[in-house]
Every structure is written in structure tokens, then in C-alpha cells.
Amino acid sequence: MNQKGYLSIILAALLHDIGKFWQRAGKSGSHQEAGAAFINDFQHLFPYDYLDDLRDAIGNHHKLPVHKEIEKIVKIADWLASYERISEHIERQDPEKTPLVPITSKIQLLYNSPKKKYLLKLKELCLERENIFPEENVIVSQADYHNLWTRFFNELRKLTVIDNSLKFVSLLSLLRKYTSFIPSATPWEEDEEFKTFPDISLFDHLKVTTAIASCLAHLLPGDIDAIYSKKSECEDKNICLMVRGDISGIQKFIYRITAPEAEAKGTAKRLRGRSFYLSVLADVIADWIIRKLNLTIANILFCSGGRFDILVPITNWTDKMNEKLLECEAELEKWLLENFYGEVGVQIAKTLITPRDFADMKSANNRLNDILAEKKRKKFHRFFKEENFFIPMNIYHVCSVCQLEPLNDPGVCNVCKRHKDIGQKIPETSHIAYCYGNPNGLFQADFDFNSPFGVYIGLLNEKKVRELVGSINPGKREIVLYRLNSTDFLYDDSAADVSFSFRFLGNEAPIALENIPATNGEEPTKKGDVLSFENIAGLSEGTKLLGILKGDVDYLGLIFGEGIEPRSISRISTFSNSLDIFFAGWLNIICREVSQKWKDELKNKSDPKHNWVDNLFYIVYSGGDDLLIIGPWNQVIEVAQRLYEDFRFFTCHNRNITLSAGITCVKPHFPVQRFAHLVNEDLEKSKNDADEPGKAGLKEKNRITLFGETVEWEDGNNPEKSLKELTAFAKRLAAQVENTDSPLPRGFIHFLRRLEEYFYKRGSLMWVPKFFYSLKRRVKKEVMENLDLQSKVPAVMGKMKIPVSYVSLITRKE
Asked: Phi/psi at 349 (nearest 5 deg)?
């Protein structure tokens, strides 16, 4: 199929249900008629010779029979993408009054899904709480649709003609912004028993339909006719491939920083730079594969956390497609081996997909995971037979930071130097520029992925972007500008050959707002610099320690395999994208708001440190379903609690979607590899110290480990022993210890810990008389009553290590 025919199919599939948006905003007629009218009103966006096909495919996709091949392809793709629609006994609702139900509220695993009805407002996608968080009482009206359509209409006018796959990126991104909270289908049916449940967004439906249509477009016309006319008889016919890529060795690579004393000041920047490099690498690889196969970005169903899923066509030249994929994998492995010496690898699995799979992806998902598991055991095996693979190199020195890159002389390798520069640059970066061609004269390339990926990447601030889009003529160079963590991504004065999009990225980092005095012999930190670990620890209250927070979603693989019903491709894609909005996007807001609260508290105390930084936390990585954050130890506890609370709201308080975490406190010069290992142990302890197996033999995790003690976040069987109550108790104890009028003796705090360790945990009831005797002798009556120690201490006993450790660290003077 030629490029014209292929792109017209892609555009028709992407816009086939755009009429639903306009119809609910007040456009008369059916949604197919509204969709065809949309093409007429915005015909300047499409090549002239596409218009008839677009109007016919969009206007006829619910009619029978249809005759054009493009009409058949769009109709079949719509059928297959609609397998996610489930029916429930719910009230009939007008389409323009139906809110979107968050898919997180419908997941079932250990428990039934929430009985409360959670809904999403009709808003554009952006990192505002009211836009992305569900609520119990949501009302949607035609006026809401009209307002949203008007904003969409005004931004759509900024686009230039969509005549290639690069310009397609801008349209897809604009649809993501404005249709992510519009239900693709609503319970309008007359049938009292079975009505369509509105839990899949219009955007997810449009994108999946487009990915499927792009695959159908490569089938033979006879195959299309067979599927169209005999749908039920073709459910086991192979129609495309699902390709899954997984980058291995990510964390080992990120933490491979020895940080000798001479380089300690740059460790924080270098750590963030290495993490960012790998997150970009996964995007670059997925982007490279779709370009090698002449596909569009819509075929990338998911890409985050070093993993990606791509829907790939099969054709009458299937062997050639397989050959291309094998070539991609071999070329990738060779490049990774040459650049990372086996530390980082990539495994690519593929499996054939049938129409039946679109209704339930469990079997396909299992096949892919089995292939990946097998390939991980045979990393780089294709190179083992090469004669020079095991020939030793004459290496006299290696990089003093990563201990990986060979050097002729002692020092730091160029890669580690580059990562440090990137770590410094990330917090001020507003856009990531992808340039397909050398960007000389346009911007500085921070990443050179020209070989083998054919792309240069630059980290640009807002000023540089405005200069870029207003003045350049890329010529043969194609550029895509991704705005970070903001969906206001289009520019009025954009160059014709520049495309725009947005993405969410955890990129918060502490920046000095003024010169910070030197500490512990280090150089002062200049205004505008990213803080060192020493600086960050110096912002702690009491003992100057770093807090390392690591967390992830419990049983995520099982949720994808069993918790989502039915496990359709659209439903899985929707849930994946939802998690990425939270972990890659909203996590920035959490860090920012906790930092602002800290600044306000210090300002009230007239503490000058509130002017030192704009943010306390270093997001080393986040996205997919996991995260690692570094900050002042006591504020990391605050951000962990806020993370949990917001995650509960975001997931509709669904007890089937939980979060576990670990926090480790270390000195600022503690080796990175070592604290990464310790915090991972704490995370695993949170998951493994759960109760005995319950439903389906699964333990309820949902815990956090702090100071080596594992506790529930909140509202467990013993609320007093939850993190929320323990830290609240610890703060009250600390305030009383530092109360100059009626202080609580510090010695009494340590006595409580010894009492727990030597009596309570050994099953001896002697802790009771010893506690009350010491309480009476050592604590003033008003202090005892103010803190309610007589009832509080017995309730906390067993988890006393957390409040005692907290008080000890926060009241210590250094």
C-alpha cells in the first residue's frame, strides 16, 4: 500500500468517532454525520486527495454494507477495539450527561470493587487535581461538552496540514488532551438488562482503533473481505503481532556509581542523569522500531519503566517483517553490548494476535512474558560464538565513577561527565526535542543516538524553544518537541516542519534559589545549581541524613492478568496509561506541594532556609508503577504519606490496587549502590512481612518499612500502629521533648524502646508494671496527660521503634 492510502486509513481510524465529541457538544445529526462534517470544516488539515476517503470512512463506519476498502478497514478496527465494552444493569443515560468511570474503580482481585460510584469530570488532561482525580458526585452537561469542544476547536486551528506520520503526532496528542475523559460509549441502549458501561475513554478507543487499522491495512484485500463478511468465522485468524520490549539491567546501571570522595559533589546530578538517560533510551528504541516498520506513534500502546508494547502488522511478506524485527533486535543488542559492556540488555518478544485476543489479552500476555523470561536467561547469546567475544582487552584504567568504561588514564569517562551535565540540566528543561537529522545550528544535542537510531535529542528550556519554533527552517530535518508535564504544548508561530506533543516525566530536583554556604568542607552551592546530597541532607531537621524512598504497586502483573475484566487491549492500555499519569506526572506535584508546606512552616519560624530551594526532593526515577525519591529524611516520610493518600484517591480507594514502599535513612556520602540495595531490602520486607495468605492464596501487602519496622499505611486492624498514627505520635513526643517549660525527658523515650525490646517482644508482661512505674517517676503529670501516654504507649507497643527513632533523629542537635 502506498503512503497516501496508508495515512488516509490512519487518519480515518483516529477520527472515526470524533463526531461523538461534537455531537455531545450540540452538533445535530448522528455522530457519523458529525464526523463527516468535521472533515468538511477542517479540510485544510488534510491533503485534498484524502478528503473523500476520510468523509466516507468516518460517515459510513456504522452502515451496512460498505464497499470501499478504507471503510471496511475502519469498520473492522472499530469492532475489534470495541471488544472492551462490557454491559451492566445500569440506568439509561443521555450520552452528553454520562461521565467517564475510572477503570481503577472496576478492578477486582482480593476483594470486590468499591461500592461507591466514582466518576471523572469532563476536563482536558492536565496535572490539576480536579482534572485527573475521581470524585463521588460528578455531573456532566452539554454545556461542559460545548466548552471543551470550543477549547479543542481553537487549538486544532494551530495545526498545519497532516501529510506525514510526524505531523500525525500533534493531532494524536491534541486528541489525548481533550478526549481522555470522554466516554467512548455510554449506556444509552433501551435494553433494561444490558447497557454499555462507560469506563473506556474516547482517546483510548481512538488510539487502539488506529493501531489495529494500521495492521489491517497491510493484509490482503481478500483477507479484509473475509473478516468483514464472516466476522464470527475469523476469530482465530492471525491479523497482527504484539511486540513487547523489555530493557534489563536498568537499576544496576543507574546505581553503578562508586562516588569517590573527589566526585561526591556530583553524585546527585549524575544519578539523576543516568536514570533520565535510560528512560529516554526506552522511548528512542520504541520510536526507532515503528520508524523501521513505517508505522505511527499510535502503534506504541505503552512505553514506560523500560518496557514497551507495540502492535505490528503481518503481511503477505510476513517473513520479511519477522526478518526486520530480528534485525532490530540484533542491532540493538550489538549497540548495547558495545556501549554498556553487557550491563544493559534488551529482550524483544512477539506473538501473533487474533480477533479473539482483542477481547481477552491474557493468553497473548502470558506468551509474551514467557518468551521474555526465556530470553533474559540467554542475554547476548547470539554473540557468544564470535571468535573475538572472549578475547581480553588491555585495560589499564577504568572510569573512577562507574568502574565500567575503559580509559587510558585515571579519571572520569565522558559518559559519566555527560550524565552529570544532564542531571544539572533536567530541572530547567521544559521540552525534549527529537531531531531526525543533525541539529547543527538548531540546538545542542544532549544525546547523540544517531547510530543506530537516527535521532538527536536536546533538553531545551522555554526560551530556547520559542527561539526554535519561531525562526528555523528544518529542511530535511524533522523535529518533534515534547513538552514536559504540561499539556499546553502547541505554539501559534510554529514552523511548518515541527511537530508538538507532551509527556509526563518525574523530573523534580532541588535547585538553589540563592548561594548556599559550604557544609562539611564542600564548596558553596551557587544559585541555580542542583543541590548535592550533602546540601539535601543539610535541609533535614535534627540529624542531617538523606531519606531514600522506593515504592511500587503490589501484584501489578496479577492485576493485568486477572484483575481487569474483560482483559481487552483497550482496557489494559487504559489502565497502563492511568498509572503513568500518576507516577510520571502527578508525583511531581506531590513533591512540589510537600516542599511548599515545608517552606511555609520555616517561613513562619523565620528560618532563612525557606529561601534556599524551590523543592526538596530528587526524583531519581518514576513511571510505569514504581519510583525512587531522595530528600531530607524527615520530609521523605511526609512525601511517602502524601504519596499513599493521593494514590488511594486516584485509584478510587480500591483495596485491590495497593502500594508498598520502603524508606532508608543514610548519611549523604553513603555509597549509592549500598543505599539502593538497602532500600530495596526494605521494600521487599514490606511486601513479604504481610499477613498470612488470604483470598486466592494472596497476602494483602499495602505496607511501608521505616527504620527497619514494617507497618500498615493506615486503617489496619490496629490503627494506632499505622504509619500515619505513629508519625503523628512521634511529632507530639518530639515537640514535648523540646518544650523548655515542661520537657519530656529524652531518656524516657529511649527507655520505651528498651522496654519493648527486652520485655514486650519476648512475651514478658513485666513491661506493664515497669512502664507505669517509670511513667509515674520520670514524667510530669501534665505532660503525661497532654500526650495521653497511659493509653497511647500500650497501643503503640510493638512498633515503638518508629516513634523512638524519629524523636531521636529529629531532636538531635548537630
From this structure: -120, 150
Q: Which helix (H) or strand (E) holds 448?
A: strand 447-449
What span, in angstroms and rounded, lies between the C-alpha atoms of 181 and 204?
Answer: 10
Show the cell assigned to 430. Answer: 521544559
Amino acid at 793: V
Confidence of residue 431 (pLDDT cuts 50, 70, 90): very high
pTM above 0.90, yes or no: yes
Q: Is the peptide bond between 65 and the residue preceding it cis, with omega within 30 degrees of 0?
A: yes
Question: Do residues 78 and 200 lie in contact, with contact meaning Cβ atoms separated by under 8 Å?
Answer: no
φ, ψ for residue 621, nearest 5 deg: -155, 155
Kindly report whether the peptide bond that precedes residue 183 is cis, defined as omega within 30 degrees of 0: no
Cβ 20 vs Cβ 152: under 8 Å: no
The enclosing H or E element of 458 equals strand 455-460
C-alpha cell at 234: 475469523
User: How far apart are alpha carbons 758 and 766 in whole angstroms?
Assistant: 10
292 contacts 328 by C-beta, under 8 angstroms? yes
- Cell matching residue 19: 463526531
Which of 417, 482, 644 lies closest to 549, judged by CA?
Answer: 644
Strands 659-666 and 703-706, sheet pairing:
parallel
Rg over alpha carbons for the chain, rounded to the nearest Å, is: 29
Computed from CA positions of residues 14, 18, 19, 20, in that sequence, does the dihedral angle turn out positive or negative? positive
H/E stretch holding 359:
helix 355-359
Alpha helices in 718-759 (DSSP H): 723-737, 746-755
CB 744, CB 737: distance < 8 Å: yes
In tens, the pLDDT along 355-404 reads: 989 888 889 999 999 999 998 888 887 777 777 766 666 767 888 888 77
Q: What is the pLDDT of residues 526-542, one digit of tens each?
A: 888 888 898 899 999 99
Q: Residue 189 pLDDT more than 60?
A: no
Dist CA 673 CA 274 (whole Å): 13
Give the CA count within 13 Å in the CB-facing half-sphere of 60.
16
How far apart, in Å, do the first and last CA atoms of the chain sit?
Answer: 72
